[in-house]
């Protein structure tokens, strides 16, 4: 049973939104210069709940960037053009004619990097009348639900990740007329990360493979790798591990890329959606 948590003395109220993970946070204005106490309270809730939703925020790009920098250095996407004034900021836009949206399909952000981003911070600027929700899947809960035998087999395995299928020439990720890619010639580079990642702050283990960027498991025959990956990718996004965020104008959601996957639904064809995304630099998965 989930309960409301009051994080005093910062005065922040955290209300879980599912039985597994995710929470709405009340009692704070993110446009202000937050003190260290408030930032520590948010960070603690972030590690515990993985997904935090802040409603009714009125944020300029500069204020969103300032909030993100309280949690670490900001990253610049290697393959998507950033905002002209703020390269760390992506204007994630879907226009009425788009058939494919940015972030559609289950994935964890930028696992093709040697040091993938710690977290992402997304702010709603313009929304369709209905639809456009984001789903999140708790990868620590998914790992915990596996049998001890399966967990023992997966611990120590290493997977290969690449941006190629999404960002190489002809890739799937950015089909919007208002978004563009860059450096497509570098997208085929591969990196290796553990199949099971240990969270550097909580110490909990979670699955760390995703359908967008993980291509195979090192050291296994292709048929073995494909079979295990398909099982894990299906298991990891089962509905019992998920929560759903319904956006409103002025909603800001931050999520922990070390412990969740997400899926931006595109069920609003014929309408425009504009979000602002920034990401906080992370460390090498272990």
How would you characterize this protein structure?
The protein has one domain: Clavaminate synthase-like (Double-stranded beta-helix, 4-Layer Sandwich). It contains 6 helices and 16 strands. The chain has an 8-stranded mixed β-sheet, with helices on one face. A 3-stranded antiparallel β-sheet has the order 13-7-15. Strands 9-8-12 form a 3-stranded antiparallel β-sheet. It is an alpha+beta fold and 286 residues long. The longest helix is centred in the C-terminal third of the chain and has 15 residues. Strand 1 and strand 2 form a beta hairpin.
Q: Could you name the CATH homologous superfamily? A: Clavaminate synthase-like
Estimate the global geometry from the Cα principal axes: globular
Fraction of helical residues: 10-25%
Q: How many strands appear in the DSSP assignment?
A: 16
Determine Rg (CA atoms, Å): 18 Å
Question: Span from first to last CA?
Answer: 32 Å
Order of helices and strands: EEEHEHEEEHHEHEEEEHEEEE
Give the structural class. Answer: alpha+beta
Main sheet properties: 8 strands, mixed
Highest-level CATH class:
Alpha Beta
Number of domains: 1
Task: Figure out the total of helices.
Answer: 6
- Looking at how many chains there are and whether they match, the oligomeric state comes to single chain
The second-level CATH architecture is 4-Layer Sandwich
Major beta sheet, strand line-up: 1-2-3-4-14-6-16-5
Which descriptors apply to this entry?
three-stranded antiparallel beta sheet, alpha+beta, 27% strand, Double-stranded beta-helix, 286 residues
């Amino acid at each position: 049973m989930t309960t409301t948590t009051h994080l005093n003395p910062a005065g922040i109220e955290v209300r879980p939104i599912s039985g597994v993970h995710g929470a709405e946070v009340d009692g704070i204005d993110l446009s202000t210069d937050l003190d260290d106490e408030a930032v520590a309270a948010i960070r603690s809730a972030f590690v515990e709940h993985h997904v935090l939703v802040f409603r009714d925020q009125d944020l300029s790009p500069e204020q969103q960037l300032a909030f993100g920098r309280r949690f670490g250095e900001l990253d610049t996407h290697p393959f998507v053009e950033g905002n002209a004034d703020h390269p760390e900021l992506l204007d994630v836009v879907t226009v009425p004619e788009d058939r494919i949206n940015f972030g559609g399909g289950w994935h964890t952000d930028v696992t093709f990097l040697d040091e993938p981003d710690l977290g992402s911070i997304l702010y709603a600027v313009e929304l369709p009348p209905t639809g456009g929700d984001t789903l999140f899947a708790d990868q620590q809960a998914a790992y915990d639900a596996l049998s001890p035998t399966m967990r023992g087999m997966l611990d120590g395995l290493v997977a290969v990740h690449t941006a190629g299928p999404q960002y190489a020439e002809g890739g799937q990720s950015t089909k919007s007329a208002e978004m563009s890619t860059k450096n497509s010639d570098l997208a085929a580079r591969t990196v290796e990360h553990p199949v099971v990642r240990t969270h550097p702050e909580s110490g909990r283990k979670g699955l760390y493979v995703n359908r967008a960027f993980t291509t195979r498991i090192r050291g296994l025959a292709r048929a073995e790798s494909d079979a295990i990956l398909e099982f894990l990718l299906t298991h990891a996004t089962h509905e019992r591990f998920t929560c759903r965020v319904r956006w409103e104008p002025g909603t800001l959601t931050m999520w922990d890329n070390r412990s969740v996957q997400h899926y931006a639904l595109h069920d609003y064809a014929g309408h425009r959606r504009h979000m602002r995304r920034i990401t906080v630099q992370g460390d090498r998965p272990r």
